[in-house]
Amino acid sequence: MLEAPSRPVTIAEVQALVARAFRLDSTALIAPTRRQHVACARHVAMYLSRELTGVSGRDRGGPPASFARIARAFARDHSSVIHACATVARRRRADAGFARLLDQLAAQLASSPGAKFLPQEAV
């Protein structure tokens, strides 16, 4: 389960942290490329944007960012965001290492503004 942030998290913060975690320039997440590494990072960022944005996160009762709002931030269509969220959720259930990565990213977003990705040992 993703840790609900105690403060508002922005889509831009999610994009910056995910880009650092995947060793990408943040502009790569909105670029039209379909390279697997970039697409995976983009999907993760879209998923975390959906799960962690809002007044204080979905688990705390705040509304998540809409698919349309996330789509605009990534220069995509809302259906791409729906697909990304479903794909990441499915992989999260099937892959424990991937689930740990998502939890680490969420924890870092929840803990401090401008968080830098600090990977744990076994990811």
Describe the structure.
The protein has 123 residues and is mainly α. It has a single domain, classed as Chromosomal Replication Initiator Protein Dnaa, Chain: A, CATH 1.10.1750. The chain has helices spanning 11-21, 36-52, 67-73, 78-94, 96-111. α1 (11-21) runs antiparallel to α2 and α3 packs across α4 (78-94). It is globular and about 35 Å long.
Q: pLDDT under 50 segments (min length 5)?
A: 55-59, 117-123
Amount of helix: 55-70%
In round numbers, the mean pLDDT is 84
| Major sheet summary line | none
Write down the Rg. 13 Å
Strand share of the residues? under 5%
* CATH architecture descriptor text: Orthogonal Bundle
Number of strands: 0
Please indicate the count of domains. Answer: 1
For the record, give the distance between the C-alpha atoms at the N and C termini, rounded to a whole number. 16 Å
Shape: globular
In short:
The protein is mostly helical and 123 residues long.
Chain-wise SSE layout:
Layout: H1 11-21, H2 36-52, H3 67-73, H4 78-94, H5 96-111
Tags for this model:
about 120 residues; single chain; 5 helices; mainly alpha; Chromosomal Replication Initiator Protein Dnaa, Chain: A
